[in-house]
């Protein structure tokens, strides 16, 4: 029994069941009525079962034939989905690209890629939601979401984007006012600038080779906005604990420098969440590729 032969017969048999007419099935498929009749007869021989009961006036589907039809319908539906996927793959990206991302990460890392993407795809518009609240792709009618987690999200369709490492940053003039910081334990006498949380103290993790430290520090300045934290550190209020990408520009401009750079600290990952793997629109697929290339 040939699988390819049966697949062709499935198409013909399914069309006969749906129309209950050899003549109409042949017309829709663009073949002769006799070809339909021969194909059905050959299929029944290969399967060793009667699928259709045909009289001069009507066609009836047997119980075995109806069960076989349901298998055929599912297979043919998958074939159509595969064809649709390929067709969309080659289509020019169009429509509105609906994206949600965390506020700071979105502003600094996602928006520059979106700007380039829009410039290169004239028929695509962008609807960007920058928020730190939880989102639902379906309920919020989104194409994709960018999230930041320590571990892989519990989502069926997610792709890794980039690692987000954290570090300590301070203004050079601030550090000059104190003795050199040579080890994590030296940090306890300093003031800290931290993202706002439920407590004023935080245990900072440090790793270097096989060494591990957890140093408890107290914040003097807390905020829920990274720009405010960077500005406070530049103003010499204390040492800021920040994602490295947030401090990058200030470091390049000489306004901040990394404290204890030989020690590793927290590491998060950013992820791309999408609704479906199989039928992703061209605009979404191309933007994901652009993101991965830019932020790899």
UniProtKB/TrEMBL annotation:
InterPro entries: LysR-type_TF_proteobact-type, LysR_HTH_N, LysR_subst-bd, WH-like_DNA-bd_sf, WH_DNA-bd_sf. It holds the Pfam family LysR_substrate. Keywords: DNA-binding, Transcription, Transcription regulation. Residues 5-62 form the HTH lysR-type domain. CDD domains: PBP2_CrgA_like. Belongs to the LysR transcriptional regulatory family. PANTHER family: HTH-TYPE TRANSCRIPTIONAL REGULATOR (PTHR30537), TRANSCRIPTIONAL REGULATOR-RELATED (PTHR30537:SF30). This is LysR family transcriptional regulator. It comes from Erwinia aeris. The lineage of its organism: Bacteria, Pseudomonadati, Pseudomonadota, Gammaproteobacteria, Enterobacterales.
């Amino acid at each position: 029994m040939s699988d390819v032969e049966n697949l062709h017969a499935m198409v013909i048999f399914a069309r006969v069941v749906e129309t209950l007419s050899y003549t109409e099935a042949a017309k829709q498929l663009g073949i002769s009525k006799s070809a339909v009749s021969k194909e059905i007869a050959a299929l029944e021989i290969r399967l060793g079962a009667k699928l259709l009961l045909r009289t001069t006036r009507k066609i009836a589907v047997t119980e075995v034939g109806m069960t076989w039809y349901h298998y055929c319908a599912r297979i043919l539906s998958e074939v159509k989905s595969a064809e649709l996927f390929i067709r969309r793959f080659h289509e020019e990206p169009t429509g509105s690209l609906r994206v949600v991302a965390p506020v700071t990460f979105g502003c600094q890392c996602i928006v520059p890629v979106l700007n380039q993407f829009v410039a290169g795809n004239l028929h695509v518009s962008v609807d960007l939601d920058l928020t730190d609240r939880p989102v639902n792709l379906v309920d919020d009618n989104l194409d994709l979401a960018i999230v930041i987690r320590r571990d892989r999200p519990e989502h069926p369709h997610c792709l890794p984007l980039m690692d987000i490492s954290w570090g300590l940053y301070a203004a050079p003039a601030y550090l000059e006012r104190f003795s050199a910081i040579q080890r994590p334990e030296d940090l306890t006498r300093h003031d800290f600038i931290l993202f706002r949380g439920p407590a004023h103290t935080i245990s900072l993790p440090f790793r270097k080779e096989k060494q591990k430290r957890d140093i408890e520090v107290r914040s003097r300045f807390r905020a829920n906005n990274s720009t405010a934290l960077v500005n406070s550190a530049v103003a010499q209020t204390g040492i800021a604990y920040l994602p490295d990408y947030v401090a990058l520009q200030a470091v390049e401009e000489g306004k901040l420098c990394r404290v204890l750079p030989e020690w590793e600290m927290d590491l998060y990952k950013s992820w791309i969440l999408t609704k479906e793997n199989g039928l992703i629109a061209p605009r979404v697929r191309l933007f994901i590729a652009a993101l991965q290339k830019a932020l790899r």
